[in-house]
Amino acid sequence: MYYKNENLFNKNSLLFRKNGFSNAFLQLKLLVGFYFLQIKNDFLKVNKEKLIKTTLFLFFAGFFFPVVYYLFLFIFKHFYTAQIIGPLLVKKLLYTFYMTFTIMIILSSIVASIPVLFFSREMDFLFSSPVKIEIVFILKYIKILIDSCWMILLITIPIFAAYSKVLKIDIYQYLFIFISHIPFFIICVSCGIFLTLFLIKYFPGQQIRNFVIAIYGIFLVAFFIYFRMLEPEKLTGADFNQIMELVRNLKAPDNFFFPHSHLLKIINNVTYSGILSGVLPLMLLTFLSIIFFITVIFVAKIWYFDGFSKKEIFKKEKIVKGSFVYKKTNEFSVLLKKDVKYIIRDTTQWIQLVFLFGIIFLYLFNIYKLPADLFNLREVIFFLNIGFIGLVMSAVGARLILPVISMEGRSFWILKTIPISIKKYVIYKFIIYTFFIVTTGLIISFLSLNLLKTHKLINFITIFSTVLITFVIAGCAIGLGAVFADFKIKNPEDLITGIAGLFYMFVTFLFIALLLFLEAGFVKDYYLSKILKFKEFHIEKYFLNYILIIIIAFFIIGISMWAGIKKLEKIEV
Amino acid sequence: MIKFINVTKNYGKLVAVNNLNLEIKRGEIFGFLGPNGAGKTTTIKMLCGLVVPTYGEIYIDGITLKNNPVEYKKKFAYIPDKPFVFEKLRGIEYIEFIANLYDVDSHKFKELFTRYVKLFEMEDYLNDFIESYSHGMSQKLLITASLIHSPEVFILDEPMVGLDPKSIRLLKEEFKNLAEKGTTVFMSTHSIDIAEDVCTTVGIIDKGQLIETGSLKEIKEKNKSEKLEEVFFKLTEENE
Predict the structure, then answer these.
(1) Which of A79, A159, A412, B36 could form a disulfide with A89 if both were Cys (CB 3.0 to 4.6 A apart)?
(2) Which of A417, A423, A428 to mutate to test the interface with B (most CBs of B within 10 A)?
(3) pLDDT at residue A312 is higher than 60
(4) How far A212 CA sits from the closest chain B CA (Å)?
(5) Do residues A356 and A398 touch, judged by C-beta distance below 8 A?
(6) A316, A331, A418: residue with CB nearest B73
(7) Is residue A52 within 8 Å of A499, Cβ to Cβ?
(8) Contact by Cβ (8 Å): A206, A312
(9) ipTM of predicted assembly, 2 dp
(10) So what's the pLDDT on residue A317?
């Protein structure tokens, strides 16, 4: 027997029963069952790569949860212990966070719903099968809900664990707050899907998605910059006016029409007056979520299929006679031209540039706002500046360079069959991205050194180290990006947050740590010779260290690139 | 022109292609026939270097991929069954991209570009982004771009799928023209009619094993049949 679920083919099959609510429910059950069967089959298909992925994921989760927990423990403690208005500060802080979460979920549900509702491969099958549109929609709704909210739901576990600890709430209150998030998510996702169904009536799906991704990126970066510019560190030893200024700046609209206002009412009631006081607001929130859910189903009944049938409308542009002139160029320029066009036209790439700008801005802002009492430790700071620049550039490399080979996608067969060796192709990518990352690294170095106003020798060491680190980052990102290339991914995040990203981060962090370790003696002796005038400083004593650093850098680049080339030569597409 | 020597491809315990020995001469139009899952696409992908054979060697004009990958790749053009092309490029940009990589000079480009774009009626679509193309349009774009660099070997996996009847007829005629000029055509197809119509030699593969090869006349005579279709069913059923 090929298929165990006889319900589908049976005369009394679920699909052939008379209409009605029970039939609709059974159809939904059958389709959900199919999805679970696929997930189960995928889960049971154990292979080495999957095992490594799962182990690394668990390892990462084991690392991620405590980090978020301690970070928020620090933030909540910091705010809660502020004189007089500690609880108000925490409340304001939560409002700011949840306002952000609301926007994030709405935007990410738009991003998730376009491929899920309109571009999944099974859509033609689902629309041609004897299943009601509402059922297809509910099935897709569940997927969008999970796709857009799982990360925020997971992150609330350590955040509220920290919250519980600082505000001393018990496990039942904690669970009550946790469960209250579900209707909140349903409302936000329903809004996102409603917007998608509306927009798709007037604009091509892919363009909406790319536009929303760009907005999402800008929003996230803007939020971090905004939060950083509040300078919460000023709370330590701050006077009343400074605290009030922070409270004023923690602007977050509180209105009946915002779903997070209801959730925060539940959180506050449960925290300060116990679970019972949260029951009524939870009932109201749940009722609202049901109304939103039903409304969006009705809207989908009218708009969904219509939107599906005109999801992509392309503008036709004829070639104007004589406007095209064939220009013969070399291989390098041809590949470069293609990549540049891709970066400009693929708006999903723009989000990476927004992140790049955000990361650099935050870093330079932190240097600029260096507390005055830390200025005595300037020597230590600008030595650490080398490491920080390295970390910032490593994050930039992960976002912008690591996925570039995988982003060739299913068209990679073209690159494998054209008369360019894989070695040449990988080296081409390395040259292009090395140029990009070394330039970016040097700009940050110059700007941060200008802000720190350091000694000439240290300036030189910082620049030398930045060049070396960025070379290693480019080599690792291209090499490991090739080793872990996955041409089926559509979103670079899949690679960044997978084994490739973890392995890349591990190698680059290790190199930065090694570099700092080998440079520490040199920098220490240099400063001692400046402070204690009698201590002599001999630069030649450290040549060996620098030669060792250069050898290690070349070794890492060489190994990564070699492994990447070998993998791409053997990869079957 | 093309030579497979003891080529085998295993996927774990599954033998996708089993000890394939085959030779195709210059100027031949070779039709590779076989049921679904017989090993046609795997063989074609091995020929193009997209899949690495477990054992054996493949030669194009005496060159192997292992020994001289760039020269090997210069010899052929490949049209896959699923035409994934850089979708953020315009059709015209893709053709220019391929022409540059195969070092096509401006004079030759102008001549062949005009000829093939007109032949496959691509003028109205070349300035559009490839993401807006249908399957057939992408197929025609790939064929046009491939023909502009005049490959010595033209490898096609199910080339007629998605093409409109007029384009199918034009492509068949073009195969014959190319073969007359010495280009070798290696194509897989499910359509026995097409194979009978254009191919000079045919190979039938089933369960990874080449069960028959030769010219159409030879195969029909050997199997005492007038029709290639009858030969195909007879051989594949015998192999059950």
Answers:
(1) A79
(2) A417
(3) no
(4) 18
(5) no
(6) A418
(7) yes
(8) yes
(9) 0.93
(10) 55
